[in-house]
């Protein structure tokens, strides 16, 4: 595919997309006008001390669709084709999430701080495409993924509505128009404010268990216990708060919806604990793979994947059965700020269509999981209301020892 350089941002784009891409730069003036109007609405809402129906209605009417490079055939469809070709030459099974758009951090917009927002956008694109109940509640039933500025305002509305008070306090309830980094708890708070059942899972060493919200080593189906824990929320979650030092609070832990994993301490060690959890999440425990179905698209949503300094989106997992009987796992990941390429999504699309080099852009083996702590956010089906919605205002998590 021939490519051309955009005369405005100097990015390399397919020649067939150059006119569309260049024209998108002229939308900036309209976006600036919308941002100014949004700022006025935020100031009005802030002066009243609360979020009301009028300010939310204004936000719904003003919000703009986030710009991203649209892959005609869909990244998941292209990836599935490559994985099926690969499976002909090895004994592997892969489970993927459904449709996901890749939202890339842009050099002049959010490089260095926007990965959290981009992952929220990727997860939102899946929910809007695949879950009818989510489409009806997300972003005022707009049917599209808003840009970062409007996601920031939606998060402020979540805080104003009482979701994650410690996180709101950390940011002084203000994040619109800033380049503050966010983490898993902000992702969970935003989605929970729409009634979505966003859950948080922590993975880390036993000696750091007091940094987590949940019961260390808890297994599915066991009674929930109460314990003291450091209240963690805010940018990069516990990593920032560990340095600043927060007061301790009391929390309860939630168990996984329907108990999707039979993992327990001692069955596997280190990063394999996280890998096993992801496999059980996507396989939904009861999923069976026939000999002719080595690549399966599940009904599971992608995972928001956080570690110290960065976050990405897990869109699936692959297992290869080795001749020695061992299993080799690969996480399949979309990175909003992959520094290995200069043209991001375009390069990813090209590599998938030509079946050349896509593995290094998407696959991540167990050996790459070198961080001491990780955190995931996943979203269960259905919409919460009433007392359940009120309970979602407190962010809790499940803990697994690495």
From TrEMBL:
Domain of life of the organism encoding this protein: Eukaryota
UFSP1/2/DUB catalytic domain segment(s): 91-377
InterPro entries: UFSP1/2_DUB_cat
Coiled coil regions in record: none
Signal peptide span: none
Keywords: Hydrolase
Single GO MF descriptor: ubiquitin-like protein peptidase activity
Official protein name in the record: UFSP1/2/DUB catalytic domain-containing protein
Lineage: Eukaryota, Viridiplantae, Streptophyta, Embryophyta, Tracheophyta
């Amino acid at each position: 595919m021939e490519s051309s350089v955009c005369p405005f941002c100097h990015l390399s784009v397919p020649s067939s997309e150059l006119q569309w891409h260049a024209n998108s730069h002229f939308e900036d003036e309209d976006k600036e006008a919308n941002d100014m109007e949004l700022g006025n609405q935020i100031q009005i809402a802030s002066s009243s001390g609360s979020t009301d129906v009028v300010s939310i209605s204004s936000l719904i009417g003003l919000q703009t669709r986030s710009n991203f490079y649209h892959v005609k055939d869909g990244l998941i469809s292209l990836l599935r084709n490559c994985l099926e070709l690969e499976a002909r030459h090895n004994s592997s099974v892969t489970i993927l999430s459904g449709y996901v758009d890749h939202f890339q951090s842009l050099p002049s917009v959010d490089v260095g701080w926007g990965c959290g927002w981009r992952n929220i956008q990727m997860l939102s694109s899946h929910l809007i495409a695949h879950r009818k109940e989510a489409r009806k509640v997300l972003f005022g039933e707009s049917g599209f993924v808003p840009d970062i500025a409007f996601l920031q305002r939606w998060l402020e509305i979540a805080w104003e509505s009482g979701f994650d008070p410690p996180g709101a306090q950390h940011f002084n309830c203000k994040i619109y128009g800033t380049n503050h980094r966010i983490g898993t708890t902000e992702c969970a708070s935003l989605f929970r404010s729409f009634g979505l059942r966003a859950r948080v899972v922590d993975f880390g060493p036993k000696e750091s268990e007091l940094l987590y919200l949940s019961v260390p080593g808890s297994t599915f189906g066991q009674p929930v216990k109460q314990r003291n824990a450091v209240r963690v929320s805010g940018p990069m979650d516990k990593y920032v708060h560990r340095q600043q030092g927060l007061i301790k609070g009391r929390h309860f832990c939630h168990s996984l919806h329907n108990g999707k994993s039979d993992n327990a301490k001692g069955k596997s060690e280190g990063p394999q604990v996280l890998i096993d959890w992801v496999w059980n999440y996507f396989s939904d425990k009861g999923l069976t793979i026939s000999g002719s179905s080595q690549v399966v698209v599940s009904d599971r949503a992608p995972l928001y994947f956080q570690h110290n300094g960065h976050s990405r989106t897990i869109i699936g997992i692959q297992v290869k059965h080795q001749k020695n009987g061992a299993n080799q796992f690969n996480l399949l990941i979309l990175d909003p700020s992959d520094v290995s390429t200069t043209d991001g999504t375009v390069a990813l699309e090209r590599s998938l269509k030509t079946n050349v080099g896509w593995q290094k852009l998407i696959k991540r083996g167990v050996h790459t999981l070198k961080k001491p702590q990780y955190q995931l956010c996943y979203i269960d089906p259905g919409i919460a209301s009433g007392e359940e919605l009120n309970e979602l205002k407190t962010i809790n998590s499940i803990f697994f020892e690495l």
